[in-house]
Q: What sequence folds into this?
């Protein structure tokens, strides 16, 4: 079974200027449960986004101030368009 | 409604129409026909009569061996005309009964060439696009001093400079990489992002590019040209900070996004509170709102899932303009070729967050950046979006976001668009094709009437 990588997108309400450590404390999780490269992203509306493991995302669901998980779909360029297989 | 009227005129008239050595006009065939505007420029056409090949054949069947008789007693003649669209069904019935010589009335629909599709060669070149947008230059609207963010696969300034034969400016300090992406701004391999930058510079040659390679996320592996939406969330947070450092009276940031999601399999179901495609409350959709509210012009490609010839990756069964590509605070850009025809792969509305998408169309599928090699067009709504973003950046040269708010500029672009398809807004072309002369006219009138102050 593949390890549970921190790829689930959640948001958490924190005071302005908050750090990743603040988020970890509020959520009660360790650094190994978050994508530290991604860090804590300020959404400029009083909330912050971070990437956590799926297990943590399920666990923090319902925690005051925490919301998610949100879809984190793959995104791709809209060109050059590729023909359908039967159009080749 | 345009119609073809099949007639059985006198024998000598049929002979004259059928004989290439003789001449017969619509007037000769039909005379005057009250209620019908006959097209006198149309040369009447003789129509042979299908006749069973054998004596015992069914005279009313077309599914048997046939021969076609052009003898004067058998042939008929077609003329062309137009009847009023009001109560067309009744008018057609009355027309068929109005003259004994009329033996049939058929629709004469507009026919067009096949739309431009994936794999087709370029339609025109970037100089043609430049000419269509040239009036911006008359008022020195060239993007000078305007920050134009290309959120894509990274920019290669050397390639751009070579293709354009002039220097190109990338603002490294305000550029941003997703976590794990180590390339330097303006020095990424030539790819999709370089194409987008080239196309944005057509209308705004002096804009300052901000390189935001969100599609180079390493999370998918080093060889896949795709990213994750979380990278775009972080990128927009960075761009918000960039915008906030600008003084109010100079605030202008144009963000061009030629990417999106191709499959609902990559998303949570629409009923899930964390869904992206249909949910304005998703963090990225909220970031688009925040950035636009702060003064940024946000443009998204409508996508390449048009009904005529969709991209092979398209998996949404319907309504393929999803998520931020259909955001009410963003301009969703469809694609037309340089002849003004919608390219067959340009996604049609309604959008998922806002049904009235795409907003407008801009030019694509032209020979331009050569980012994909000689002879390969700059294609997809990927190219149309930065072309439109360049026009927006050019406008911003003299009209900052505190003079014309992003929402007002969107309305201006919609209102001035060259209407195509059904009258007014439609889900193929939106409000129509971006129309620089009309934009300039509106801006000049606005200036003359004292509404707003130029930068």
A:
């Amino acid at each position: 079974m593949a390890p549970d990588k921190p790829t689930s997108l959640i948001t958490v309400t924190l005071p302005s200027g908050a750090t990743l450590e603040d988020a970890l404390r509020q959520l009660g999780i360790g650094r190994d449960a978050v994508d530290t490269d991604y860090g804590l992203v300020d959404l400029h509306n009083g909330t912050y986004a971070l990437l956590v493991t799926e297990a943590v995302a399920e666990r923090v669901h319902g925690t005051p101030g925490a919301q998610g998980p949100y879809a984190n779909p793959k995104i791709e360029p809209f060109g050059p368009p590729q023909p359908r297989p039967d159009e080749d | 409604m345009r119609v073809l009227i099949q007639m059985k005129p006198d024998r000598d008239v049929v002979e004259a129409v059928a004989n290439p050595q003789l001449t017969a006009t619509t007037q000769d065939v039909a005379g005057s026909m009250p209620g019908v505007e006959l097209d006198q420029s149309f040369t009447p056409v003789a129509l042979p009569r299908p006749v069973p090949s054998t004596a015992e054949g069914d005279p009313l069947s077309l599914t048997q061996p046939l021969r076609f008789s052009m003898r004067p007693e058998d042939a008929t003649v077609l003329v062309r005309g137009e009847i009023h669209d009001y109560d067309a069904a009744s008018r057609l019935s009355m027309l068929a009964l109005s003259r004994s010589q009329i033996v049939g009335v058929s629709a004469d629909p507009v026919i067009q060439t096949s739309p431009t599709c994936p794999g087709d060669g370029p339609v025109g070149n970037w100089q043609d696009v430049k000419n269509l947008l040239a009036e911006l230059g008359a008022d020195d609207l060239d993007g000078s001093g305007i920050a134009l963010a290309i959120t894509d696969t990274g920019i290669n300034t050397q390639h751009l400079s070579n293709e354009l034969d002039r220097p190109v400016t990338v603002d490294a300090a305000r550029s941003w990489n997703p976590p794990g992406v180590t390339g330097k701004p303006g020095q990424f391999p030539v790819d999709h992002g370089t194409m987008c930058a080239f196309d944005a510079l057509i209308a705004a040659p002096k804009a300052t590019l901000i390189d935001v390679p969100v599609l180079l996320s390493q999370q998918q592996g080093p060889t896949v040209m795709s990213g994750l939406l979380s990278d775009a969330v972080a990128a927009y947070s960075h761009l918000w900070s960039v915008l906030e450092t600008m003084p109010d009276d100079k605030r202008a940031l144009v963000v061009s996004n030629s990417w999106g999601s191709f499959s609902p399999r990559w998303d949570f179901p629409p009923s899930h509170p964390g869904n992206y495609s249909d949910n304005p409350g998703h963090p990225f959709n909220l970031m688009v709102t925040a950035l636009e509210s702060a003064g940024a012009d946000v443009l998204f490609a409508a996508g390449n899932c048009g009904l005529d010839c969709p991209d092979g990756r398209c998996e949404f069964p319907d309504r393929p303009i999803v998520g931020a590509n259909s955001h009410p605070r963003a301009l969703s850009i469809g694609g037309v070729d340089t002849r003004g025809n919608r390219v067959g792969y340009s996604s049609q509305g309604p959008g998922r967050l806002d049904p009235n998408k795409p907003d407008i169309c801009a030019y694509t599928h032209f020979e331009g950046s050569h980012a994909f090699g000689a002879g390969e067009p700059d294609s997809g709504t990927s190219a149309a979006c930065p072309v439109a973003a360049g026009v927006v950046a050019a406008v911003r040269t003299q009209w900052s976001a505190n003079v014309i708010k992003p929402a007002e500029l969107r309305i201006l672009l919609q209102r001035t668009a060259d209407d195509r398809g059904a009258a007014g807004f439609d889900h193929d072309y939106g409000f129509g094709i971006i129309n620089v002369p009309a934009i300039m006219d509106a801006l000049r009138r606005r200036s003359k009437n004292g509404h707003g102050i130029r930068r």
Remarks:
- Chain B has a mean pLDDT of 92.
- Chain B touches chain A through 65 residues (CB under 8 Å).
- The two ends of chain B are 50 Å apart (CA to CA).
